[in-house]
Specification:
The protein is an alpha+beta fold. The protein folds into three domains: 122 residues, no CATH class; 52 residues, no CATH class; 186 residues, Inositol polyphosphate kinase (D-amino Acid Aminotransferase, Chain A, domain 1, 2-Layer Sandwich). The protein has eleven helices and 17 strands. The strands form three sheets. It has an eight-stranded antiparallel beta sheet with strand order 9-8-7-13-12-11-15-16. A seven-stranded antiparallel beta sheet has the order 1-6-5-10-4-3-2. Strands 14-17 form a two-stranded antiparallel sheet. A hairpin with a 5-residue loop joins β5 and β6. The longest helix has 16 residues. The chain is globular, with a radius of gyration of 21 Å. The two termini are 42 Å apart. The structure holds adenosine-5'-diphosphate and magnesium ion. Adenosine-5'-diphosphate binds next to β4, β10, β11 and β15.
Length: 402
């Protein structure tokens, strides 16, 4: 089912019903779709300030910032909940102005997404137990099948230990987990009068038909200056025990379109945290592999974009991008003709493949002049630079001939 959006965004009296964003591969909060080109997530002032004082040089490597919206929680008599965004924070219109066609609740959508297997399989994924349930033959893979004509109707396949496949859900499994948790939290603290602030950002994958997305947490340190002692030591441990310490970068989530089976291969942050440096290298190889051949055409464009970003980051004095991510994403649908392909299956398609890198998630970013009153650092973010340099080396050295 596709929810019609007949809402007039220009009219502040009308609300926009937020939908779960189906291509959320990482993060802990619920990323929502505002419109086809815009996503939104709960506002953290530090992130808003960062975007509002963003150095021009970094703009090409960040999503476009589109402002703030007020979001109402609306519960119907059945207890179903919707999130409705109002473009202007100072409007006092009633929720009844919301278009009827758009009033399908998020609960309904998420429940539809899970109708085939129920919550059980999802929870398994969430707890990491799905990995145990899946035999070595498909080591922890969950496959998300997609029908992109109907974005809300994509389904996924979970392969169990007997090789049986079950439809699981309509979203990236990690995204689905975040949406459910977030809505549960909001629901339990439900207060009809409370306005929640969300930040609007350009949906950087909106022009991609089959977006393959890698979320990399950058740097050797994760905790912000404001972290409690307890959080700080938890995050230090996560960095020490993962490739954050050894490489300055770790995987936080990933989806790769597998053309042959028309499914997404999905990995979550728990998978990423367990990787050794060598496992990290293999995961990058997998990110560039479509199930049939390695996308060698992507290596050079990714490397050159990472190098361009590197030279910009080196010039950002006092910035510390703690806990931020770098998204690398490309179009999974290849237009290569058979003549572009090597007999062994390696395509030499160099017709400007669609691929991009963007920095995201600045809730713990600090810099001289930022409004939080914490430490002021000198020089560029060496942890971030270390991660980027390693990334460049690893991608450059991906064994293209294998
Ligand atoms: N501007 C964007 N466009 C498209 N996808 C995005 C964008 N920002 C974030 N995402 C997706 O949402 C996920 C979580 O985003 P993030 O900002 O890290 O959230 P959190 O604050 O919960 O950590 C990312 O892994 C990515 O898949
Ligand atoms: Mg994040």
């Amino acid at each position: 089912m596709v929810v019609q959006k007949n809402l007039d965004i220009g009219d502040p009296r009308k609300g926009i019903v937020l939908e779960p964003f189906i291509h959320q591969v990482g993060g802990h909060m619920s990323m929502m779709k505002y419109d086809d080109h815009t996503v939104c997530k709960p506002l953290v002032s530090q992130e808003q300030w960062f975007y509002e004082s963003l150095p021009t040089a970094m703009k090409q490597f960040t999503p476009q910032y589109k402002g703030i919206v007020s979001v109402h929680l609306k519960k119907d008599s059945m207890g179903n909940m919707s999130l409705i965004a109002f473009p202007h924070t100072d409007n006092h219109s009633t929720l009844d102005n919301t278009s009827k066609e758009a009033s399908m609740t998020i609960w309904q959508k998420l429940n539809q997404a899970n109708t085939n297997s129920g919550d059980h399989t999802f929870v398994k994924w969430n707890q990491g137990t799905i990995t145990n349930a899946i035999k070595d033959s498909c080591t922890g893979k969950a496959l998300l099948k997609t029908d992109l004509q109907y974005h809300g109707d994509v389904s996924s396949l979970m392969v169990d230990s007997n090789g049986n496949q079950a439809e699981v859900n309509s979203y990236n499994p990690w995204g689905l987990h975040c949406h459910k948790q977030h809505l549960n939290r909001m629901s339990s603290k439900y207060n009809e009068n409370k306005l929640h602030q969300f930040i609007l950002l350009e949906n950087v994958v909106s022009k991609y038909k089959y977006p393959c997305i890698l979320d990399l947490k950058m740097g050797t340190r994760q905790h912000g200056d404001d972290a409690s002692e307890e959080k700080k030591s938890r995050q230090i441990k996560k960095c020490e025990q993962s490739t954050s310490a050894s490489l300055g970068v770790r995987i936080c989530g990933m989806q790769v379109y597998q053309a042959i089976t028309d499914q997404y291969l999905c990995k979550d942050k728990y998978y990423g945290r367990k990787l050794s440096p060598d496992g990290f290298r293999q995961a990058l190889y997998q990110f560039l592999h479509n199930g049939n051949h390695l996308r060698t055409d992507l290596v050079e464009p990714i490397v050159s974009q990472l190098k361009a970003l590197l030279s910009i980051i080196k010039k950002q004095n006092s910035y510390r991008f703690y806990s931020s991510s770098l998204l690398i994403y490309y179009e999974g649908l290849e237009k290569a003709t058979p003549s572009d392909c090597h007999p062994q299956g390696h395509c030499q398609n160099t017709k400007h493949p669609k691929v991009d890198v963007r920095m995201i998630d600045f809730a713990h970013t600090t810099y001289k002049g930022s409004r939080n009153h914490h430490t002021v650092y000198d020089g560029p973010d060496h942890g971030y630079i270390f991660g980027l340099e390693n990334l460049v080396k690893i991608i450059k050295n991906i064994p293209v001939g294998e």
